[in-house]
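User: I've been trying to design a sequence by hand for this structure and keep getting stuck. Would you show me what you'd pick, starting by listing the structure so we're on the same page?

Assistant: Good idea, let's start from the same input. This is the structure you sent:
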């Protein structure tokens, strides 16, 4: 299934839509294109559905293309070139590289395309950014870790792709943990790629390198679940706990296991984020700019204690 989602250009959805200056052009539907990190990750798959549904709400004939960059900058630049050549009206951009994508963004803007960054920042003059408050998510994770450790212990941070969302989460967590001199961060620079396989690989190495680990901060839930699997394989799952970010369905399942090591997740809402990004792009196309260029959506920490009241991601 994953190979299907990310194959070739990773096309997920194609439906149909294009308006100009707020007026529908006869026989020419509004076109929206989106490029996300990894459509094999339920988070980005759900964002893709949000883009499609928001576009169809504006115009039932909307034409939507959603592709996966695989977190590869060159792939994403090529995708944006394809969007420009197709003359799309707006691009929802989940940048594979916050700084590196700037020339492609400038090129799209020069072609008259509305570009809204979603989930992570993108340089090059995007029209707006819609993202979770990732620094807050990192702070929430750090506070949970520090409290559960009673301010003392060894922590590893399993990092991810060098995009703003990941960087902000790590910095938010580190800011909190720095307040506790008896908490030591053993590792913080191992990139697990933002997926389960990477979490398993990196955590396996960390377990070999460090005889004592008390807590793990994983930059997203797939990574965290991979870390937990590594701990189980090493029979060390009872020595430590894992905190992730996303509030994903898989994280809900993990949290329901009373004997599991996956302990908490700072929840996001990918569907709502994507819908908001399309709405903002549509407003900008019609001359209505947002009051702030960067729209932050708050996060909430989900644990076993409050899981019963968690409504989960908005469903497509």
């Amino acid at each position: 299934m994953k190979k299907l989602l990310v194959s070739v250009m990773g096309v997920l959805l194609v439906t149909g839509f294009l308006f100009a200056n707020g007026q529908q052009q006869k026989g020419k539907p509004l076109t929206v294109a989106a490029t996300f990190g990894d459509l094999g990750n339920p988070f980005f798959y759900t964002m893709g559905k949000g883009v499609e549904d928001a576009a169809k709400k504006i115009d039932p004939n909307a034409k939507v293309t959603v592709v996966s960059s695989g977190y590869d900058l060159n792939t994403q630049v090529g995708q944006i070139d394809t969007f420009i050549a197709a003359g799309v009206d707006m691009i929802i951009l989940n940048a594979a590289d916050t700084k590196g994508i700037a020339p492609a963004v400038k090129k799209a803007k020069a072609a008259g395309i509305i570009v809204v960054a979603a989930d992570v920042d993108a340089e090059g003059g995007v029209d707006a950014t819609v993202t979770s408050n990732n620094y807050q998510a990192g702070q929430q994770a750090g506070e949970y870790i520090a409290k559960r450790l009673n301010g003392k212990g060894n922590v590893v941070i399993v990092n991810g792709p060098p995009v703003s969302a990941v960087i902000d989460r790590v910095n938010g967590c580190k800011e909190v943990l720095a307040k506790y001199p008896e908490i030591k961060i053993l590792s913080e620079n191992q990139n697990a790629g933002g997926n389960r396989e990477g979490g398993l690989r990196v955590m396996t190495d960390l377990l070999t390198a460090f005889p004592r680990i008390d807590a793990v901060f994983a930059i997203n839930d797939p990574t965290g679940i991979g870390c937990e699997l590594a701990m189980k394989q090493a029979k060390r799952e009872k020595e430590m706990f894992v905190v992730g970010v996303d509030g994903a369905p898989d994280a809900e399942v993990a949290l329901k296991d009373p004997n599991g090591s996956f302990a908490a997740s700072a929840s996001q809402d990918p569907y709502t984020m994507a819908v908001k990004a399309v709405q903002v792009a549509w407003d900008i196309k019609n001359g209505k700019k947002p009051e702030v260029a960067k729209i932050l959506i708050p996060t909430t920490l989900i644990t076993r204690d409050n899981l019963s009241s968690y409504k989960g991601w908005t469903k497509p």
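That's my pick for every position. To get oriented when you compare it with your attempt: The longest helix spans residues 42-58. Residues 1-25 have pLDDT under 50 and may be disordered.
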